[in-house]
Amino acid sequence: MAQSLNSTSPPSAGNETLVDNQTATAVGALILSIVFLLGFPGNLFIIWSILARARKQSITTLLILNLAIADGSLMALTPFFIVYLVLKNWVFGNVMCKVLFYLCLVNMYASIQLIILMSLYRLLAILWPQRVSSFSNRKLVLRVLVVVWVVVMVASIPAMIYRKVKNKEGTDTSVCDSFHDHDSYAVLQYSLELVLGFFIPYPVIVVSYICILRRIRKTKFGRRIRSEKLILAIVLTFCLLWLPYHIINMVQVAWALCPEGHLKQILNKIWHRSRAVTSAIAFISSCANPVLYFFAGKSYIRREGLAFMARLFEGTALDSATRKSRQNSQNCSRDKDKDAGSVMLNDKEADSVNNSSSNVKPVKNGK
């Protein structure tokens, strides 16, 4: 994602970089500033709410916590890029060049994998509530999260290998760019992003929520519907804000593989002029969740105060016992009165037997 903030144009477009465009740098710096002001404290508040105020950390809250950590980490990096866009010069050195781009890619991969886990867990909880308890073990979930973070850290290594600070020809300014052949780097880096960030996760997410929404339409429990609406809003917001970025990735890979000619020039114009905008939109995704949580939990604010978000997350977490009781209530709703009468009758019979036995027992004891 962050590669776009200082991608160097191909030879056909000269040696101009994105920071040479006054409009692009001004708009980019403005967007990143707003994103930082909203996203950084917002994600910190989410992390604090879950760790300090949540009475129970469910599977859903653990996933939301890790998502907030990923988004908050990205928000913490935005000041470096704001300075870069304002100064139009990379002043942070070669090590930070590699580390910042690496961490940006880690955030992208971590966010999408956490969204996948969230979607699959909700699918399991909705379709197979009896079996969800076997997958809700806290230790198991923590192990899965550790594996996810390790995998995304390994998958992001190319961003660190292919990056270093380069001086612009004839100037004293520097850019952080790939030092290998630009076409080869584009194919490798953006193809990997497309596979891990789009082609695999998006179908999984879409199919999961199609199944979830079909099942929700058959249920009568408003609270579950509200919970699923919140999770669905998180997923849809993430997917929609990242979709333009992945589309431009496709265009850039096609440009890199395309032979010289008119089509290659058209593809070059598309990705080069759109990259800054789509990257800014992708950055917005990291500050969108706190806003969604605020509007979803505003009914808790007056009653719970600063703990409103923790209560909101507890409301979205459906434990297995609750799911089972709700499912049993749904399956037996047509025979509710009959079942209730049977239960009352059985209770009376049990009480009668207990009373009889209690009356006989003292006689036997001679009391």
TrEMBL record:
InterPro entries: Formyl_rcpt-rel, GPCR_Rhodpsn, GPCR_Rhodpsn_7TM, Leukotriene_B4_rcpt. It is a multi-pass membrane protein. Coiled coil: none annotated. The chain crosses the membrane at residues 26-51, 63-87, 99-128, 140-162, 187-210, 230-256, 276-296. It comes from the Eukaryota. GO terms for cellular component: cell surface; plasma membrane. Pfam families: 7tm_1. One of its GO terms (molecular function) is complement receptor activity. It is found in: Cell membrane. Gene3D superfamilies: Rhodopsin 7-helix transmembrane proteins. Keywords: Cell membrane, G-protein coupled receptor, Glycoprotein, Membrane, Phosphoprotein, Receptor, Transducer, Transmembrane, Transmembrane helix. PROSITE patterns: G_PROTEIN_RECEP_F1_2. Residues 42-293 form the G-protein coupled receptors family 1 profile domain. GO terms for biological process: inflammatory response; phospholipase C-activating G protein-coupled receptor signaling pathway; positive regulation of cytosolic calcium ion concentration; positive regulation of macrophage migration. Residues 324-367 are annotated as: Disordered. Residues 333-351 have a biased composition (Basic and acidic residues). Residues 352-367 have a biased composition (Low complexity). Belongs to the chemokine-like receptor (CMKLR) family. This is Leukotriene B4 receptor 2a.
